[in-house]
Structures are given as C-alpha cells and as structure tokens.
Amino acid sequence: MDNSLGRRISELRERRGLSITQLAKLAGVSKSTLWDIENGKIMPTITTLWSIANALGVTFGELAPYDIVIKDGGIEVRLIERGHGREVYLMKLSRGGYRRAAPHGSNPLEEVYVVDGAMVAGCVESPQFIWRGKRAVFNGGLEHIYLGVAGETVALVIMRYGERFEESSPPARRAAPHFPRYRDLIDDVVSNELLSDLVRAVNTRHRPERESLAGDILTAELETLSGRLAVPRVVVDNFKKVKEAGIERGSSTFESNIDAVRYFIYEPLHPGYAEQAVYVAYELYRRGVDEVVSVGCGPGIHEAALREILGIEILCIEPAAVFRALSGYKTVDEIPSGASAVISFGASHHIPNFLREVGSRLREGGILIVSDEFIGEHHDERSRALSLIQHHLTYLLDIPIKCCREALESAYFYASRGRLRPALAFTAKAYVEVYEKIGDLSIGVEEAFLNFFYLELSSLLLGVANIEEGKTSVARFIDEAAEHGLRLLSHYKVYSTGPGKWGSGTHVLVFKKV
After folding, report:
1. Least-confidence region, from 1-10, 242-251, 285-294, 355-364
2. In sequence order, what DSSP letters do the residues of 317-377 get, joined into one string?
3. Are strands 128-131 and 505-513 parallel, antiparallel or unpaired?
4. Beta strand 144-148 with 75-83: parallel, antiparallel or unpaired?
5. Residues 22, 26, 30, 36: is their CA dihedral positive or negative?
C-alpha cells in the first residue's frame, strides 16, 4: 500500500514538534490508529483525515497527496488540483453514501458541482438538493453534510480559502394541504362477496368485515389516516422474508436508485395502496378477465390481493432481481404478443416506452389497466417540479408523524406558492432528518413509517432531477395512450393529492386496444 499519506502526516507532525500521543489527542483519534496510519497499516476515513488536518492546522489538500482515494461511508474523495488558495476534489457517492462533516477550521467557502447523479449537500441547518449541472455553495466553516440520493453521484468539490459566504436560509412557513379531496366511488353491486365487502369499505371508508390481504392493508391505512399509526401484517411478513432470504441489492436501474429491499417491505404503508387493488379487481371482474399479465409487479402484493379476490391467473414482468427473488411470482422478460389483458401498478412511469410496448403487444380489443400516481398539469420543468413536490408531500402530510413535519409543511408552503428553491431546501432538510433516523430495517410502527418516508422523499427528489421517476399528468398520459391505439374506457381517482378529478393523486385508468 502506498504510504505517502502516512509519511506526510508524520512529516507535518514532527515539523510542529508534536508526538504521536499529542497529535492523537488533538485530533480525537486513538494513538494506535494514528500510528497505523503513519506506518501505512490502514487508510484513514475522510472524517479522520479532516480531524488530523484540523489538528495540524493545514487544509485537507495539504495533507492528502494526489491520486490517493479516501473512502468513508459510501463516499470516495480524491484531490485533483491544489493552488492559488483553492483545492478541487473529485467526490463519488453511492446511494445513501453519507458524511456529516465537522466545521473546517480554515473556514473555506465550499462549492459542490454535480457532474452526474443527485445529492444533498450544504450546512446542516440549510442543506440543498442538487443534481446534474446544479451546484451548492455554503460555508465550510459550519457543520455540513453530503448525502447521495441517486445510484451513483459524481461531484466536484471546490474549497476556496480566504473567501466568505453569508448564507441566508428561507424562514419556515408551515402549511398543510387543504383542498376538497375528490375521489370516485364504485356504485355497482357485485356478486363476488369479498370484492363486494372491499368495495363497501372503500366507498364508506369503514373497516371491511371479511379477512383479506387488501382488507388488512386498508384497515391499517384507515387507522393511520384517522390519527393512530398502524402497520398491516404484510409489512411484518415481508420483513421476515427479507431477513430469512439475506437478499442483497440487485443491479437494475430501479434497484440502483431506489432501495428495493425497503420498497418490498414498506411500500404497503403508502396511502391509497389497498384501494388500487380494489378498483382494479372491480374492473377485471366486470369485464370477465380471468388471466392477466402484470408489468412491473414489484413486491407482488397487489397481484396477491387480486388472486385472493378473483382467483385469476397472473404472469409477471419484473426486471428487478430483488422482487423476482422475493415476490414468489413466475416472471418473464416481455409481454406475450397477443395478450388479452395487461395491468400495471405503479410502474408506468418507471418503464421506458411503456405505452408503446403495451400497445404493440395487446391484441385488438385487449384491456390495459394502469394504477399509478400522476401529478398536476405542468408546462415546463419548473412547474413539473413544483407539482411533484406538492403531490408527494400530500401523501406524507396525511400521515400523523412528528418527524420532519415542520420541514415538510414549509416545503409544501413554498411549492404551493411557486417558489421552487426554498421548497427543495426544506424537502432536502426533511430528507436528511429522516435518513439519520431510519437506521437498520425495522417493523416498529414509527420506524416503519420513517422508512416509508425515506422511500417517498427519494422518489420526490429523483423525480425532480429526472432520474428514475417520470411522472406526468393524467391528461397527458391518456393523450399519449391514444397515440398507441389505446382508448380510455374508465377513469377513477382513487386518492387525491390535488383538487378535482384530473388533479394529482393515485388514478386507475382502463384502456381498450382499438
């Protein structure tokens, strides 16, 4: 192992007349650790190296030689340029790579430019969300953070010494969503007793009488929305599956950007989750469908609910290895040509060319049912981002949990008033607060909801950065479907995050191939 770093530390220590014991005490590390670093036995973390640099009264760049890669908590840093009062580093962050950095004694102005991916960076009290082509500027003399949001993020970090930066943080302005909650009801009487019970429960917002997977999820949701957090049994069951299987992260795009293991466990906590299965089951029932292809079946929970309610045959299309391993469904790589019925829960905005692919595979007269989240109408990237923020935050603010509520309400306030920058700043603050609390996987009630918050905020930020998430408005989706020979037959708004039937929220759309 190259020991140029250890020799440099030893040289600077001796130049300042410090013993290993004295420097270790000043840097807050053990004597044995410092000895191992100086003698090339171990490579220090970024945090340890900064502590040593501060104790020696030098910058990080003066201590770290070129081409030495320092790793710490899913983050890699390499010095690439130093001189004229500045240092430039190349930083790489994995998704969830995190560092909470102590104030730099030299009080530099710090700039972070994202080359690829997305991250949160900045002072702890006012972090900023940045993605490809964006930058954050903050005072490195204050405690600050770096947190990877996308699968891999590459950034340039520039430290400017001798320059000052006065930060101005937007004030908190708390406001919760307030608008008429439009939703469509099912008014037909059905002879399927379980489906009839679930339809009644969805329509009246009362607990279903019969035991079922969808009913258990719906009951937990109704309790949560009424003010008492409740976790359905499937979350506990999926937690046990993950622990028993020892599943590791897969390599699909979705798995790189979204924590698929957490998604498998905690996604049923999403408001409106059970209702989607009920509306789709009703449409399949009334059209006499007895076998379907599910595109992007994910955890397979909706599919399990449909099979329990209707007893139908389901073939799954699912690229994510985690879901293939855990859901227990037989999967294929593509929709069979001439399919008579295709369904999709929450995947239409994840899969490239989704409507074109389905339209080309369905037979004439075939049915497509899409249950997914849609945002409000938008005319440019700014208005799309503002709509995304309000959409996702409405789901979260409907859940009675105290963690990060002030930040979420402030983010919603600014987004609803068209102010994107402070809305993203408060969203980033909430994201960091949740990330620091989730820890290991858990089925404790509050911990489970914090894990769901992490997933939902990740989707929000990735959507704003146009990474992984590609949500659009329901009207635009219907227009695009028509271009691929798919005519709308039925439209239900299942859960509302924006006003009116055509506003943002969870929708179920039924199309026929013509």
Report:
1. 242-251
2. E---HHHHHHH---EESSPPTTEEEEEEES-TTTSTTHHHHHHHHEEEEEEEEEEEEEB--
3. unpaired
4. unpaired
5. negative
Secondary structure letter of residue 473 according to DSSP: B
Res 507 pLDDT > 70: yes
Neighbours of 440 (CB within 10 A): 6
Q: With contact defined as beta carbons under 8 Å apart, do 276 and 343 qualify?
A: no
pLDDT one-digit tens code per residue, 35-52: 888 888 887 777 787 788
If you search the block for the tokens 């220590």, which residue do you land on?
Answer: 13
327 near 321, Cβ under 8 Å? no
Q: Tell me if 424 sits within 8 A of 392, measured CB to CB.
A: no
CB contact set of 246 (below 8 Å; sequence gap of 6+):
none
Give the closest residue to 229 by CA, choosing from 241, 239, 240, 219: 219
Radius of gyration of the chain (CA): 26
- DSSP string for residues in 385-398: HHHHHHHHHHHHHT
pLDDT at 298 over 70: yes
Question: Two tokens at 242?
Answer: 């993950």
> Is the pLDDT score of 78 beyond 70?
yes
Q: Tell me how far apart the alpha carbons of residues 335 and 340 are, in angstroms, rounded to a whole number.
A: 10
Q: Which residue has the tokens 């840097």?
A: 27
Look at residue 220 and tell me whether its pLDDT is greater than 60: yes
Residue 322's alpha-carbon distances to 149, 198, 260, in angstroms, are: 19, 30, 7
Contacts of 168 (CB under 8 A, 6+ apart): none
CA torsion 489-494-495-499 (nearest 10°) is: 40
Read off the pLDDT band of 152 (50, 70, 90). very high
Whether 101 contacts 77, CB under 8 Å: no
Does residue 83 come out as left (phi exceeding 0), alpha (psi in the -120 to 50 range) or beta? left
Structure tokens at 48: 């340890």
Cα gap 404→337, rounded to integer Å = 48
| pLDDT tens for each residue of 419-463 | 999 999 999 999 999 999 998 889 899 999 999 999 999 999 999
Tokens of 96: 């969830």
d(CA 85, CA 82): 8
CB 1 within 8 A of CB 40: yes
Residue 69 CA to residue 352 CA, distance in Å, equals 36
Q: Give the pLDDT confidence score for residue 249 in this predicted structure.
A: 53
pLDDT confidence of residue 252: 58
What is the sign of the dihedral through the CA atoms of 424, 265, 177 and 345?
positive
The answer to whether 284 and 342 have CB atoms below 8 angstroms apart is: no
**pTM (2 d.p.):** 0.89
Q: Could you tell me which residues come within 8 angstroms of residue 324 by beta carbon, excluding any fewer than 6 positions away?
A: 318, 331
